[in-house]
UniProtKB/TrEMBL annotation:
Swiss-Prot/TrEMBL keywords: Membrane, Transmembrane, Transmembrane helix, Transport
Lineage, top ranks: Bacteria, Bacillati, Bacillota, Bacilli, Bacillales
Top-level taxon in the UniProt lineage: Bacteria
Claim: Phosphoprotein is one of the keywords in the record: no
Gene3D superfamilies tied to this protein: Amino acid/polyamine transporter I
UniProt entry tagged with the keyword Transport: yes
UniProt protein name: Amino acid permease
Coarse class of the protein's main subcellular location: membrane
Pfam family, one: AA_permease_2
Membrane topology of the entry: Multi-pass membrane protein
Membrane-crossing residue ranges in chain numbering: 36-58, 64-84, 96-113, 160-178, 190-209, 221-240, 261-285, 305-328, 357-376, 382-403, 415-433, 439-459
Organism: Sporolactobacillus shoreicorticis
Amino acid sequence: MRHLFRALFRRKPMDYTIHQASGKNGLQKAMGAFDLTMLGVGAVIGTGIFVMTGIVAAQNAGPAIILSFILSGIACAFAALCYAEFASMIPASGSAYTYSYTVFGELFAWILGWDLILEYGLACSVVASGWSAYFQELLKGFGVHLPTAISAAFDPSKGTYVDVMATVIVLLLSTILLSGVKESSRINDIMVLIKIGVVLLFVIVGAFYVQPSNWTPFMPYGFGGVVQGAATAFLAYIGFDAVSSASEEVRNPQRDMPIGILSSLGVCMVLYIAVSVVLTGMVPYTELNVGDPVAFALRFVHQNWVAGFVSLGAILGITTVLFVMMYGQTRLFFAISRDGLLPKSIAKLSKKSKTPIFSILLTWIMATIFSALVPLDELAQLVNIGTLFAFIVVSIGVVVLRVKRPDIKRNFKVPLVYVIPFLSVLSCGFLMVNLSGQTWIRFLIWFGIGLVIYLFFGFRHSELGKLQKQNR
């Protein structure tokens, strides 16, 4: 029994993880700090800035949404600091899965990896469906209407059977990922820079139409509303963790990973706050409970030409979010299968571009089926619970490793290591507890399925398990 327990919680040595990443089965090193920052901004600035800003202002915080985004940004920074420390120590694919394999052992790593598969998989599908809806609205502006049957996921009561546009964007981004990380990151950089330009265009134009009287009352729902708004706004920052999945493909990960993670979060925080200030200054907060508050605000002040650019920016924003989620999913599949916990063939790399071909194809199939056929409105909260769980594990892992392995060289250290990770766990735990009971049930069912797969496949095929048997 003791032997079985040890086998289930066998920990992967950090040296072995680094050897995997730098050996012949490692990915191509082609990214720098700028690419990582763009990857993080690409993941975070999407529907949150173009939709959530208006909803939080109207329903929770009023003009004090500025404070909501500051509070949620600080809470998210706690987790980001913990990710940055791990990323500077372990430059390998897999993000939180790989970190927990080193700290807590194989079973826990598998559970977290399985959790992240759900997070990225559903996120890809939810975002692809959102992209399709936005793009169809843009087409309608040009008088083009898709047949109802192919306009949304399977729902016979509404006459919809397949979301064709969702499958198109997933296929397009999968093709870009297959081209190699260097080419992929370059395309992402361009899209993100255009998106930032569109956001800044709104801030600059909108600033001329700000009416200070719209900021009164500043806190109409009290401080409780600000906190509730912060809890909702926290979810708008989720996505920066996908940056850590790029560790293995960074030229100087020990230096660039912390820069990429923290600078991307900083840029996003500044943009969220700037948009919130201008948005609530342009339009009374009570009128912002609409699906496109940023474009609505511009139409409100008769700047329709800028509203058109904002609609384009929203589509680009969602595109980069989808791209980064798909990228994170492919690297997660690659890391887990390289360890033998999923079929090893999934980790096979192309000879020319050193990209994980079958990981990309698996991600493409999963995202296509989910986004094209499955209505995902009720499942979207599972993305949040999966991410928050990963944040908690990484935050605890930083403290555990500081105690157990203080000798390890850390190019970046979390300041106040016994305070900040605790605050990260507290803020993420608070949000998890407030998710619906149905979400928790689905989360636990997914865990149960994963446990069965691990016991019948992963445990027997583990590369670490085979290595330990050889060394006995």
